[in-house]
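The following block was generated as part of the benchmark described in Methods. Ligand: molybdenum atom.
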Amino acid sequence: MPETILRVEGEVGRPCELTREDLARIDAAEQVTDVGRLDAKRKGAAVTLRGLLSLANASPEARWLTLHATADDFHASVPLEAVRDRGVLIYSLDGGELPLSSGGPVRFYVPDHAACQSADVDECANVKFVDRLELSRERGFDNRPEDEDDHQALHEKQDAPG
Ligand SMILES: Nc1nc2c(c(=O)[nH]1)N[C@H]1C(S)=C(S)[C@@H](COP(=O)(O)O)O[C@H]1N2
Ligand SMILES: [Mo]
């Protein structure tokens, strides 16, 4: 059985459990075949957040998007309005899985994000290892670092070998 790598739930008409194949089958108009075109430092194939919201039949009442990474217990909640038309989920590299080293199996990415800790949609909100997208009316759980020390500590942990 192909593995579920992403769930979409909360304020949606149709909660989804998606495999990489499911993501690849989303309408071609919602596929970004090379995210390098959005940002030269990024690589892989992505599907637009819009495509996923439409697949899950997101409720018009939904105001917040919470990106959950169970793997390392990292979570970010951002106003849906701010990311609806530009957020993408990177899910594949060279036709295979997106490796952990690139934040796979699924990584959220917003081109033109703000610098770390400067806004709701900052670089820190580019959540790696996302396994669940949650739509809600109120802001969801968010444990992005709140001050420079916490942020520094997180980066040291992320950049540590092994
Ligand atoms: N799951 C997860 N995603 C995460 C983080 C994390 O610790 N865990 N750190 C965030 C922070 S603080 C930043 S600045 C960016 C860094 O992305 P990069 O390693 O691709 O440069 O990832 C974000 N996504
Ligand atoms: Mo960050």
